[in-house]
Write a structure and sequence with these properties.
The chain is α/β, with parallel strands linked by helices. The protein is built from 11 helices and 19 strands. It has helices spanning 11-34, 90-98, 120-135, 157-173, 202-215, 227-234, 250-253, 274-284, 305-315, 326-333, 337-344, and strands at 58-61, 75-82, 103-109, 139-145, 178-182, 222-224, 254-258, 290-292, 319-321, 349-356, 359-360, 365-374, 387-392, 398-402, 415-423, 431-438, 462-463, 468-477, 493-494. The strands form 3 sheets. It has an 8-stranded parallel barrel, surrounded by 5 helices. Strands 11, 13, 14, 16, 17, 18 and 19 form a 7-stranded mixed sheet that branches. The longest helix is centred in the first third of the chain and has 24 residues, at 11-34. The chain has 2 domains: 58-66 and 349-494, Immunoglobulin-like; 75-344, TIM Barrel (Alpha-Beta Barrel), CATH 3.20.20.80. Strand 7, helix 8 (274-284) and strand 8 (290-292) form a beta-alpha-beta unit.
Length: 496
């Protein structure tokens, strides 16, 4: 410390000392300025962190495919009628599958069981039929009935309810290969007309629907023949919305089948108030399956292919029988409209753009923003996971993470950007990785079967051997002392 006494110093010395003091004070002020971030207690300076810059993202754009794609649970289907004893043959199923179809409708006629329990042999037969459906990589639309004759006999309600109880175990055991079911049982063809047991009324209809919802696994829908049947059951005419869809509630589990498509203005009574009913179905079918077939038109005029395609797009159809009614279907071939239907029916998902963090480190977060669209006529109606798979170049080691994307929310003619963040394992090997999108079946028995995975409608992405879609993205994973620890709750785990 410098002590000053003016009585002991001459003027010049005082001047020099004052200059020295000035310099000391100036230095002190400078130090104070540097330490302006110090706390009030006079501690060390607080160093403000430098502003962080967002992770730099690389962008790739993917081209759209114009090809027909045989994806699960959509498109054209064939109908196979069977009975309680004759098996659905592998040959018949392979023929349908080789024609580029992934759906078959199985209609079981059970006249001998109108007033008795189903035989155990029939239960075994249905199980074996569905095993063969699985063997060829297809899914089934199920319906049960007692007669195919307009003047034939159906069964009393007590038999119907008992038979539904009896098939419940099969429905649960084989749910993976069941796309959906149709209410059936009442009347000729199970279409709820001409009931010999006087079951063509709202009370009976509601009993059958209620029983189906009880015995059917909650992840599957039951289709009814007209929108009125659903409206009567749920007690209102409000169609589904995103807020009410995809829940274990009656309104979210009842879909529609129209077996008189484009036959006349009302589709043979399918619609009562045509405009109102079609608006209802158009909204409802964004969340539940709509399908069916045409039949012989009630008038002389046949609907054109252009009109049929427009209706399919407006009402959001997922599947259509291309085996009946042939003259009308042949008419739709004119101008290539039947081929357009084959390509567009149901969902047709694609990725248009991907943004991603190219440089990454073990234990850090991988950023992946995917813009996805749907060029099809309908949304996906059964849930399935959207999995991101990292495949290491050179070793083919794989890591997978379930993204949380609900593919059912990607509606026709829309695009949605999903902003995703995944935590990389701290133990992941350094190297270069390709990024794949895997859309497997939601059922564990089918998950690893490529035939049940969804192919994106993009060019040069599909690997039929794995069921993966290659997004054309490569990332680098390299250790870095500057890398931030990942915070995402979605983590990659080693697959192989």
């Amino acid at each position: 410390m410098l002590h000053l006494s003016s009585c002991a110093l001459g003027g010049a010395q005082i001047k020099n000392n004052m200059k020295t003091l000035h310099n000391i004070l100036l230095g002190a002020l400078t130090l104070m300025a540097v330490a302006c971030g110090s706390d009030s207690k006079g501690g060390d300076p607080v160093v403000e962190p430098r502003p962080t810059t967002p992770t730099a993202l690389k962008t790739v754009h993917l081209g759209l495919s114009n090809a027909e794609i045989a994806n699960p649970e959509r498109g054209f289907y064939n109908l196979l009628e069977t009975n309680s004893t004759d098996p659905v043959t592998l040959q018949a199923l392979k023929k349908i599958r080789n024609d580029g179809k992934t759906l078959v409708q199985l209609v079981y006629y059970l006249p001998e069981y109108r007033t008795s329990d189903l035989a155990e042999s029939f239960i075994t037969k249905v199980e074996a039929d569905l095993d063969r459906v699985r063997e060829v990589g297809m899914k089934a639309i199920l319906r049960f009935a007692y007669t195919s004759d307009q003047n034939g006999s159906d069964a009393p309600m007590s038999s119907i309810l008992r038979h539904l109880d009896q098939i419940k175990p099969i429905l649960h055991h084989k749910v993976g290969v069941i796309a959906c079911v149709q209410a059936g049982f009442i009347g000729a063809w199970g279409e709820w007309y001409y009931s010999s047991n006087h079951l063509n009324n709202t009370t009976a209809y509601n009993q059958v629907i209620s029983k189906w919802l009880e015995v059917l696994p909650e992840e599957r829908c039951v289709q009814v023949r007209t929108p009125k049947y659903k409206q009567d059951f749920v007690g209102n005419s409000n169609p589904l919305t995103l807020e009410t869809a995809f829940k274990n509630t009656p309104i979210a589990r009842i879909g529609h089948h129209n077996d008189a498509f484009m036959t006349d203005d009302t589709n043979m009574g399918t619609y009562q108030n045509v405009d109102k009913d079609k608006r209802y179905v158009a909204q409802d079918a964004l969340y539940v399956p709509l399908g069916g077939e045409t039949t012989k038109p009630s008038g002389a005029k046949m609907a054109s292919g252009k009109e049929a395609l427009a209706e399919i797009q407006t009402l959001h159809w997922s599947f259509l029988n291309d085996g009946y009614y042939k003259p009308l279907l042949d008419n739709w071939k004119t101008g290539g409209y039947l081929n357009q239907m084959k390509k567009l029916l149901g969902y047709r998902l694609y990725v248009s753009k991907a943004e991603f963090s190219e440089q990454n480190a073990p234990g850090s977060d991988l950023v992946l923003n995917l813009t996805m669209g749907n060029a099809g006529t309908a949304s996906m109606y059964n849930a399935r996971p959207a999995v991101i798979v990292l495949v290491q170049e050179g070793t083919n080691s794989e890591y997978e993470a379930v993204s949380g994307i609900d593919l059912r929310t990607i509606q026709p003619e829309t695009t949605t950007t999903f902003k995703l963040t995944f935590k990389l394992p701290s133990t992941i090997a350094e190297g270069k990785y390709k990024v794949m999108m895997w859309l497997p079946d939601g059922n564990n028995e089918l998950k690893n079967m490529p035939a049940y995975a969804v192919q994106l409608a993009n060019n040069n992405v599909w690997n039929s051997a794995t069921g993966y879609n290659n997004l054309g993205i490569s990332i680098n994973i390299v250790k870095s002392k500057d890398a931030k620890a990942g915070t995402s709750s979605i983590t990659f785990v080693k697959k192989k």
